[in-house]
Amino acid sequence: MKKFDQLAGVAAPLNILNIDTDMIIPKQFLKTIKRSGLGANLFDEMRFTQDGEEIADFVLNREPYRGAEIIVAGDNFGCGSSREHAPWALLDFGIRCVISTSFADIFYNNCFKNGILPITVSADERDALMADAADVENPELSIDLVKQTIRRPNGVEVSFEIDPFRKKCLLEGLDDIGLTMEKSGSIDSFEATRSEEKPWL
Predict the structure, then answer these.
(1) For the chain, what is the total number of helices (H) and then of strands (E)?
(2) % of the chain surpassing 70 pLDDT
(3) What would the pLDDT profile of 143-193 be if each residue is shown by its tens digit?
(4) What is the spatial distance between Cα 49 and Cα 70, in angstroms, rounded to a whole number?
(5) Residue 118: cis peptide before it, omega within 30 degrees of 0
(6) 96 burial level (CB within 10 Å; 0-12, 13-18, 19+)
(7) CB proximity list for 165: less than 8 A, separation 6 or greater
(8) Where are the domains of the chain?
């Protein structure tokens, strides 16, 4: 998993409440178990017509947001079914951070396991960041995970809270497999001892 420490990038304003995982990546794209390729269908039903044409007024179809790395979203982002394809699609598109007032629990947990930083802020802070993102002349935000701050274009910093263990995992690029492999020495020692003491197993 790619490490996350600092990020400076274009923030896309997505001022919609209750964006669920089916909106993020519709069910017809869940047939794959690969994490790559899903970015092309991120927000598919909002980005494209049934004929595959871009919907011009959707934020990610406009400059400068085509290259957005951050989303500032409405309340309750990631609700609905527990599909891990949702963070896969966001990450494959290039989104590394989502800022909202609240997240669905399963989606929130899945973000950390895939190298995406979900940041919870107050409603007033979200509204200010949404306004920043909507400024097409300078919609860039800077995220510092070590300091736990979001720097706005005007230089004002917004602090956020994060669980220390989840912070460590993002900073070190550790997903569940990476965390397990940190214990590889103990695992090898246990296996060797068991083989000596119980060779029939």
Answers:
(1) 8, 7
(2) 94
(3) 999 999 999 999 999 999 999 999 999 999 987 666 666 666 776 677 767
(4) 24
(5) no
(6) buried
(7) none
(8) 6-197
| Residue of 138, 58, 145, 62 lying closest to 97 (CA atoms) | 145
CA quadruple 10, 13, 18, 19: dihedral, nearest 10: -50
User: What is the number of residues in the chain?
Assistant: 201
The CATH number corresponding to 6-197 among 3.30.1330.120, 3.40.1670.10, 1.20.1280.170, 3.20.19.10 equals 3.20.19.10
Kindly report, residue by residue over 126-156, the tens digit of the pLDDT: 999 999 999 999 999 999 999 999 999 999 9
Positive or negative: CA dihedral 102, 78, 176, 5: negative
User: 8 vs 63, 67, 103, 149, 161, CA distance in Å?
Assistant: 17, 12, 22, 12, 19
